[in-house]
Amino acid sequence: MHIPENYLSPSTCAVLGAVMLPVWYTAVQKVKKEISKEKLPLLGIAAAFSFLSMMFNIPLPGGTTGHAVGGTLIAIIFGPYAACLAVSVALFIQAFFFGDGGILAFGANCFNMAFLLPLSGFFIYSKLKNSVNELLAAGIGSYIGINVASFFAAVEFGIQPLLFTDSTGQALYCPYPLGISIPAMMIGHLTIFGLAEVIFTVFVLSYLKKTSPSILSENQSQNSGGKAIYALAAVLIVFTPLGLLAEGTAWGEWDPEELADQDFLGHILGYTPAGMENGFEFESFFPDYTIAGLPDEFAYILSAIIGTALLVVIFKIFVSVLKVE
Q1: CATH number for the 10-321 domain, one of 2.40.170.20, 3.40.30.10, 1.10.1760.20, 3.10.129.10?
Q2: Cα(52)–Cα(48) distance, rounded to whole angstroms?
Protein backbone atom coordinates (compact mmCIF):
# COMPACT_ATOMS: atom_id res chain seq x y z
CA MET A 1 0.00 0.00 0.00
CA HIS A 2 3.07 2.23 0.00
CA ILE A 3 2.61 4.48 -3.02
CA PRO A 4 6.03 4.88 -4.66
CA GLU A 5 7.53 7.97 -6.23
CA ASN A 6 5.82 9.29 -9.38
CA TYR A 7 2.80 6.96 -9.35
CA LEU A 8 0.71 9.98 -8.40
CA SER A 9 0.97 13.37 -10.10
CA PRO A 10 2.73 16.15 -8.17
CA SER A 11 -0.59 17.96 -7.89
CA THR A 12 -2.28 14.91 -6.36
CA CYS A 13 0.58 14.59 -3.89
CA ALA A 14 0.35 18.30 -3.07
CA VAL A 15 -3.39 18.13 -2.39
CA LEU A 16 -3.11 15.11 -0.10
CA GLY A 17 -0.08 16.61 1.65
CA ALA A 18 -2.05 19.80 2.24
CA VAL A 19 -4.94 17.78 3.65
CA MET A 20 -2.57 16.15 6.12
CA LEU A 21 -1.14 19.41 7.48
CA PRO A 22 -4.12 20.26 9.74
CA VAL A 23 -4.40 16.58 10.65
CA TRP A 24 -0.80 16.48 11.86
CA TYR A 25 -1.27 19.76 13.72
CA THR A 26 -4.35 18.39 15.47
CA ALA A 27 -2.54 15.13 16.23
CA VAL A 28 0.34 16.99 17.87
CA GLN A 29 -2.05 19.05 19.99
CA LYS A 30 -3.98 15.94 21.03
CA VAL A 31 -0.78 14.10 21.96
CA LYS A 32 0.40 17.06 24.06
CA LYS A 33 -2.87 17.05 26.00
CA GLU A 34 -3.70 13.36 26.20
CA ILE A 35 -0.37 11.52 26.57
CA SER A 36 1.84 12.04 29.59
CA LYS A 37 5.56 12.71 29.51
CA GLU A 38 6.18 9.27 31.00
CA LYS A 39 3.98 7.50 28.48
CA LEU A 40 5.15 9.21 25.29
CA PRO A 41 8.37 7.16 24.77
CA LEU A 42 6.21 4.04 24.56
CA LEU A 43 4.47 5.62 21.58
CA GLY A 44 7.83 5.32 19.83
CA ILE A 45 7.81 1.57 20.39
CA ALA A 46 4.20 1.43 19.23
CA ALA A 47 5.31 3.24 16.06
CA ALA A 48 8.02 0.60 15.75
CA PHE A 49 5.31 -2.09 15.86
CA SER A 50 3.78 -0.49 12.78
CA PHE A 51 7.17 -0.13 11.11
CA LEU A 52 8.04 -3.78 11.80
CA SER A 53 4.64 -5.15 10.80
CA MET A 54 5.06 -3.52 7.39
CA MET A 55 8.34 -5.40 6.90
CA PHE A 56 6.53 -8.77 7.09
CA ASN A 57 5.55 -9.10 3.45
CA ILE A 58 2.92 -11.73 2.72
CA PRO A 59 2.59 -13.36 -0.73
CA LEU A 60 -0.64 -13.38 -2.70
CA PRO A 61 -1.31 -15.80 -5.59
CA GLY A 62 -0.42 -14.00 -8.79
CA GLY A 63 2.96 -12.75 -7.61
CA THR A 64 2.08 -9.70 -5.52
CA THR A 65 2.62 -9.08 -1.81
CA GLY A 66 1.16 -7.03 1.03
CA HIS A 67 1.44 -6.49 4.77
CA ALA A 68 -0.26 -5.43 7.96
CA VAL A 69 0.02 -1.82 9.20
CA GLY A 70 -0.96 -1.87 12.87
CA GLY A 71 -2.66 1.52 12.86
CA THR A 72 -5.82 0.41 14.64
CA LEU A 73 -3.70 -1.38 17.25
CA ILE A 74 -1.89 1.84 18.14
CA ALA A 75 -5.18 3.77 18.15
CA ILE A 76 -6.66 1.33 20.67
CA ILE A 77 -3.65 1.66 22.97
CA PHE A 78 -2.92 5.40 22.68
CA GLY A 79 -5.85 6.98 20.82
CA PRO A 80 -6.45 7.60 17.10
CA TYR A 81 -4.57 10.89 16.82
CA ALA A 82 -1.53 9.46 18.59
CA ALA A 83 -1.72 6.56 16.12
CA CYS A 84 -1.82 9.06 13.26
CA LEU A 85 1.36 10.69 14.52
CA ALA A 86 3.09 7.36 15.22
CA VAL A 87 2.32 5.80 11.83
CA SER A 88 3.23 9.06 10.04
CA VAL A 89 6.68 9.06 11.62
CA ALA A 90 7.09 5.36 10.81
CA LEU A 91 6.17 6.05 7.18
CA PHE A 92 8.66 8.91 7.02
CA ILE A 93 11.46 6.67 8.33
CA GLN A 94 10.54 4.05 5.74
CA ALA A 95 10.48 6.52 2.86
CA PHE A 96 13.55 8.58 3.78
CA PHE A 97 15.91 5.87 4.97
CA PHE A 98 14.68 2.77 3.14
CA GLY A 99 12.90 3.99 0.01
CA ASP A 100 9.67 2.26 1.01
CA GLY A 101 7.07 4.71 -0.29
CA GLY A 102 7.78 7.93 -2.14
CA ILE A 103 8.95 11.19 -0.62
CA LEU A 104 6.51 13.18 -2.78
CA ALA A 105 3.81 10.61 -2.00
CA PHE A 106 4.47 10.84 1.74
CA GLY A 107 1.33 12.90 2.35
CA ALA A 108 -0.77 10.47 0.33
CA ASN A 109 0.60 7.45 2.18
CA CYS A 110 -0.03 9.16 5.51
CA PHE A 111 -3.56 10.11 4.44
CA ASN A 112 -4.31 6.44 3.74
CA MET A 113 -2.37 4.55 6.39
CA ALA A 114 -1.86 7.09 9.20
CA PHE A 115 -5.15 8.98 9.03
CA LEU A 116 -7.95 6.96 7.43
CA LEU A 117 -6.81 3.58 8.73
CA PRO A 118 -6.50 4.27 12.49
CA LEU A 119 -9.45 6.67 12.69
CA SER A 120 -11.86 4.40 10.85
CA GLY A 121 -10.57 1.30 12.63
CA PHE A 122 -10.82 2.95 16.05
CA PHE A 123 -14.29 4.29 15.26
CA ILE A 124 -15.57 0.77 14.56
CA TYR A 125 -13.75 -0.60 17.62
CA SER A 126 -15.23 2.05 19.91
CA LYS A 127 -18.75 1.35 18.62
CA LEU A 128 -18.43 -2.41 19.14
CA LYS A 129 -16.31 -2.83 22.27
CA ASN A 130 -19.21 -2.49 24.72
CA SER A 131 -21.47 -4.95 22.90
CA VAL A 132 -19.02 -7.69 21.82
CA ASN A 133 -15.75 -9.15 23.06
CA GLU A 134 -13.07 -6.44 23.06
CA LEU A 135 -10.63 -8.50 20.99
CA LEU A 136 -13.37 -9.23 18.46
CA ALA A 137 -14.13 -5.51 18.27
CA ALA A 138 -10.43 -4.82 17.74
CA GLY A 139 -10.23 -7.43 14.99
CA ILE A 140 -13.27 -6.08 13.15
CA GLY A 141 -12.04 -2.51 13.51
CA SER A 142 -8.56 -3.35 12.21
CA TYR A 143 -10.01 -5.27 9.25
CA ILE A 144 -12.24 -2.38 8.23
CA GLY A 145 -9.48 0.16 8.82
CA ILE A 146 -6.95 -1.45 6.50
CA ASN A 147 -9.58 -1.95 3.80
CA VAL A 148 -10.69 1.69 3.98
CA ALA A 149 -7.05 2.71 3.51
CA SER A 150 -6.62 0.25 0.64
CA PHE A 151 -9.75 1.53 -1.11
CA PHE A 152 -8.62 5.14 -1.01
CA ALA A 153 -5.15 4.18 -2.26
CA ALA A 154 -6.84 2.33 -5.14
CA VAL A 155 -8.89 5.43 -5.97
CA GLU A 156 -5.78 7.61 -5.91
CA PHE A 157 -4.10 5.21 -8.34
CA GLY A 158 -7.18 4.89 -10.52
CA ILE A 159 -7.89 8.58 -11.09
CA GLN A 160 -4.40 9.23 -12.49
CA PRO A 161 -5.07 7.99 -16.07
CA LEU A 162 -8.38 9.88 -16.06
CA LEU A 163 -6.76 13.20 -15.17
CA PHE A 164 -3.20 13.10 -16.46
CA THR A 165 -2.32 11.96 -19.99
CA ASP A 166 0.04 13.11 -22.73
CA SER A 167 -0.92 14.26 -26.23
CA THR A 168 -1.20 10.66 -27.44
CA GLY A 169 -3.51 9.63 -24.60
CA GLN A 170 -0.92 7.64 -22.70
CA ALA A 171 -0.97 7.93 -18.93
CA LEU A 172 1.66 10.17 -17.39
CA TYR A 173 1.57 8.44 -14.01
CA CYS A 174 -0.18 5.28 -12.78
CA PRO A 175 -1.72 3.86 -15.99
CA TYR A 176 -4.43 1.70 -14.44
CA PRO A 177 -7.99 3.09 -14.21
CA LEU A 178 -10.42 2.58 -11.35
CA GLY A 179 -11.83 -0.56 -12.93
CA ILE A 180 -8.44 -2.22 -12.47
CA SER A 181 -6.92 -0.46 -9.47
CA ILE A 182 -9.87 -1.03 -7.12
CA PRO A 183 -10.26 -4.81 -7.58
CA ALA A 184 -6.49 -5.30 -7.77
CA MET A 185 -5.98 -3.56 -4.43
CA MET A 186 -9.11 -4.75 -2.67
CA ILE A 187 -8.93 -8.48 -3.43
CA GLY A 188 -5.72 -8.87 -1.44
CA HIS A 189 -6.80 -6.62 1.42
CA LEU A 190 -10.27 -8.09 1.76
CA THR A 191 -8.66 -11.51 2.10
CA ILE A 192 -5.08 -12.24 3.14
CA PHE A 193 -3.78 -8.79 4.06
CA GLY A 194 -6.90 -7.89 6.01
CA LEU A 195 -6.59 -11.18 7.88
CA ALA A 196 -2.94 -10.39 8.63
CA GLU A 197 -3.98 -7.04 10.10
CA VAL A 198 -6.57 -8.77 12.29
CA ILE A 199 -4.11 -11.41 13.51
CA PHE A 200 -1.40 -8.85 14.28
CA THR A 201 -3.80 -6.56 16.13
CA VAL A 202 -5.47 -9.27 18.18
CA PHE A 203 -2.18 -11.05 18.96
CA VAL A 204 -0.45 -7.93 20.27
CA LEU A 205 -3.48 -6.81 22.27
CA SER A 206 -3.83 -10.29 23.80
CA TYR A 207 -0.14 -10.31 24.67
CA LEU A 208 -0.31 -6.90 26.34
CA LYS A 209 -3.50 -7.77 28.22
CA LYS A 210 -1.76 -10.80 29.74
CA THR A 211 1.73 -9.43 30.33
CA SER A 212 1.10 -5.77 31.13
CA PRO A 213 -2.56 -4.74 31.21
CA SER A 214 -1.55 -1.37 32.67
CA ILE A 215 -0.26 -0.38 29.21
CA LEU A 216 -3.86 -0.31 28.06
CA SER A 217 -4.98 1.93 30.91
CA GLU A 218 -5.10 5.69 30.64
CA ASN A 219 -2.88 6.24 33.69
CA GLN A 220 -0.05 3.92 32.67
CA SER A 221 3.50 5.20 33.04
CA GLN A 222 6.59 4.48 30.98
CA ASN A 223 7.97 1.90 33.39
CA SER A 224 4.61 0.17 33.83
CA GLY A 225 4.74 -2.73 31.39
CA GLY A 226 7.57 -1.21 29.41
CA LYS A 227 9.65 -4.40 29.50
CA ALA A 228 6.89 -6.42 27.86
CA ILE A 229 6.44 -4.02 24.98
CA TYR A 230 10.21 -3.75 24.37
CA ALA A 231 10.53 -7.55 24.50
CA LEU A 232 7.84 -7.95 21.87
CA ALA A 233 9.59 -5.43 19.63
CA ALA A 234 12.82 -7.41 19.96
CA VAL A 235 11.05 -10.63 18.94
CA LEU A 236 9.53 -8.94 15.90
CA ILE A 237 12.95 -7.63 14.87
CA VAL A 238 14.50 -11.10 15.03
CA PHE A 239 11.78 -12.58 12.83
CA THR A 240 11.57 -9.78 10.23
CA PRO A 241 13.59 -11.79 7.65
CA LEU A 242 10.47 -13.91 7.22
CA GLY A 243 9.27 -10.99 5.13
CA LEU A 244 11.93 -11.85 2.57
CA LEU A 245 10.25 -15.18 1.83
CA ALA A 246 7.46 -13.44 -0.08
CA GLU A 247 8.40 -13.13 -3.73
CA GLY A 248 7.05 -10.46 -6.03
CA THR A 249 6.15 -6.81 -5.60
CA ALA A 250 3.08 -5.29 -4.00
CA TRP A 251 0.52 -4.13 -6.55
CA GLY A 252 1.27 -0.59 -7.66
CA GLU A 253 4.81 -0.60 -6.26
CA TRP A 254 6.75 -1.74 -9.34
CA ASP A 255 9.86 0.07 -10.47
CA PRO A 256 9.16 2.18 -13.58
CA GLU A 257 11.16 -0.18 -15.79
CA GLU A 258 9.01 -3.10 -14.56
CA LEU A 259 5.74 -1.34 -15.32
CA ALA A 260 6.01 -1.64 -19.09
CA ASP A 261 5.85 -5.44 -18.80
CA GLN A 262 2.73 -5.56 -16.62
CA ASP A 263 -0.44 -6.93 -18.24
CA PHE A 264 -3.25 -5.76 -15.95
CA LEU A 265 -4.94 -4.09 -18.94
CA GLY A 266 -5.36 -7.49 -20.58
CA HIS A 267 -2.21 -6.92 -22.60
CA ILE A 268 1.33 -5.78 -21.90
CA LEU A 269 1.34 -2.06 -21.09
CA GLY A 270 4.30 -1.62 -23.42
CA TYR A 271 5.49 1.78 -22.25
CA THR A 272 6.75 3.62 -19.20
CA PRO A 273 4.58 6.63 -18.34
CA ALA A 274 6.56 9.80 -19.02
CA GLY A 275 5.80 11.32 -15.64
CA MET A 276 7.32 8.28 -13.97
CA GLU A 277 10.30 8.00 -16.30
CA ASN A 278 11.24 11.67 -15.94
CA GLY A 279 9.84 12.30 -12.48
CA PHE A 280 11.31 13.09 -9.09
CA GLU A 281 14.10 10.82 -7.87
CA PHE A 282 15.32 10.33 -4.32
CA GLU A 283 18.08 7.96 -3.27
CA SER A 284 17.42 6.54 0.18
CA PHE A 285 20.22 5.40 2.49
CA PHE A 286 19.27 1.69 2.48
CA PRO A 287 16.96 1.09 -0.50
CA ASP A 288 14.58 -1.85 -0.01
CA TYR A 289 16.17 -2.52 3.40
CA THR A 290 19.46 -3.60 1.82
CA ILE A 291 22.90 -2.69 3.12
CA ALA A 292 25.96 -3.01 0.91
CA GLY A 293 28.15 -5.97 1.81
CA LEU A 294 25.58 -7.70 4.02
CA PRO A 295 23.42 -10.73 3.22
CA ASP A 296 19.78 -9.79 2.79
CA GLU A 297 18.72 -11.46 6.05
CA PHE A 298 21.24 -9.55 8.17
CA ALA A 299 20.52 -6.31 6.32
CA TYR A 300 16.82 -6.77 7.00
CA ILE A 301 17.40 -7.28 10.71
CA LEU A 302 19.80 -4.34 10.89
CA SER A 303 17.27 -2.18 9.03
CA ALA A 304 14.63 -3.20 11.56
CA ILE A 305 16.95 -2.26 14.41
CA ILE A 306 17.80 1.10 12.81
CA GLY A 307 14.14 1.92 12.17
CA THR A 308 13.08 0.93 15.68
CA ALA A 309 15.92 2.88 17.29
CA LEU A 310 15.12 5.99 15.26
CA LEU A 311 11.46 5.86 16.24
CA VAL A 312 12.27 5.45 19.94
CA VAL A 313 14.73 8.35 19.83
CA ILE A 314 12.35 10.60 17.88
CA PHE A 315 9.53 10.15 20.37
CA LYS A 316 11.87 10.68 23.30
CA ILE A 317 12.90 13.97 21.69
CA PHE A 318 9.21 14.83 21.32
CA VAL A 319 8.91 14.78 25.09
CA SER A 320 11.04 17.92 25.35
CA VAL A 321 10.18 19.53 22.01
CA LEU A 322 6.42 19.20 22.46
CA LYS A 323 6.67 20.11 26.16
CA VAL A 324 4.37 17.29 27.13
CA GLU A 325 3.15 17.63 30.68
Answers
A1: 1.10.1760.20
A2: 6
User: Pick from 78, 118, 107, 142: which is nearest to 16 by CA?
Assistant: 107
- How many other β-carbons are positioned within 10 Å of the β-carbon of residue 90? 32
Q: Where are the domains of the chain?
A: 10-321
pLDDT tens digit at each of 325 positions of the chain: 899 999 999 999 999 999 999 999 999 999 988 887 777 888 999 999 999 999 999 987 666 789 999 999 999 999 999 999 999 999 999 999 999 999 999 999 999 999 999 999 999 999 999 999 999 999 999 999 999 999 999 999 999 999 999 999 999 999 999 999 999 999 999 999 999 999 999 999 999 999 888 777 665 444 456 788 899 999 999 999 999 988 778 888 988 888 888 888 888 999 999 999 999 999 999 999 999 999 999 999 999 999 999 999 999 888 777 665 5
Q: Give the integer Cα–Cα distance in Å for 153 and 12.
A: 12
User: Torsion angle, CA of 322/27/99/154, rounded to 10 degrees?
Assistant: 180
Return the closest-CA partner of residue 218 out of 84, 31, 77, 121: 77
- Give, to the nearest 10 degrees, the angle between helix 71-78 and helix 134-158: 130
State the Cα–Cα distance between residues 1 and 148, nearest whole angstrom. Answer: 12
Contact assessment for residue 162 and residue 177, using Cβ atoms and an 8 Å cutoff: yes
